[in-house]
Specification:
The structure is a single chain. It contains seven helices and four strands, in the order ααβαβαβαβαα. It is of the alpha/beta class. It has a domain of 132 residues: Rossmann fold. α3 links the parallel β1 and β2. α3 packs across α6 and α4 packs parallel to α5. It is globular and about 45 Å long.
């Protein structure tokens, strides 16, 4: 070994007295702001990401308790990897994944596959990814469809905020038939 050949003592670990470090007063740690990811697509016919970001900006603590990290991908089949990147590379604690499947049968099949990819990304990262899809054929009326896009994007962004900071908000709404995009369905009575 190099240390033995030079006559130096072999390395045994710590070479400095750390007792002074242990006695030093600990300084209060500053809490790093959480990050919420928003990933949207170019294919959607509505700027879902803008609605989600606007909603998050209106939440208490925006800019101090949490920040928003955004990404845009071509289509909804690209959302899973983009969400994983926001989690693994950007440190996001939760991601809102926004996309629009078209109305053709192949679009519905692709939406199912994209959904499976998002579920797998959640399992691989142990991090919630809220899938927010608005299907192009949810309404024939463009004005209604635009309202569905905006409402669903905003409500799921708020859900992401609640999941991190106010989980009791979700608990209060359990079993109430709460929907995003359209009017609430309401609870069933036994």
């Amino acid at each position: 070994m190099a240390g033995e050949a030079s006559g130096a003592a072999p390395y045994t670990g710590c070479t400095k007295d750390r007792s002074a470090v242990a006695k030093k007063k600990s300084t209060p740690k500053t809490t790093k702001a959480q990050r919420i990811g928003v990933v949207d697509t170019m294919f959607a016919r509505f700027d879902m990401g803008a609605s989600a970001r606007a909603e998050l900006e209106s939440c208490p603590g925006y800019g101090e308790t949490f920040t928003v990290v955004s990404s845009t991908v071509p289509g909804f089949k690209d959302l899973a990897v983009a969400a994983m990147n926001l989690i693994e590379q950007e440190g996001c604690a939760i991601v809102v994944a926004l996309g629009m499947p078209g109305s053709a049968p192949i679009d519905k099949q692709c939406a199912h596959e994209a959904s499976q990819g998002i579920m797998l990304a959640q399992l691989m990262t142990a991090t919630p990814i809220l899938e927010v899809f608005v299907h192009e054929d949810e309404s024939d009326d463009p004005d209604v469809l635009a309202k569905v896009f905006d409402d669903r994007s905003r409500k799921h962004a708020r859900n992401a905020y609640w999941m991190l900071f106010e989980p009791d908000q979700l608990s209060r709404r359990a079993g109430q038939g709460v929907r995003q995009g359209f009017d609430n369905a309401g609870p069933l009575e036994a």
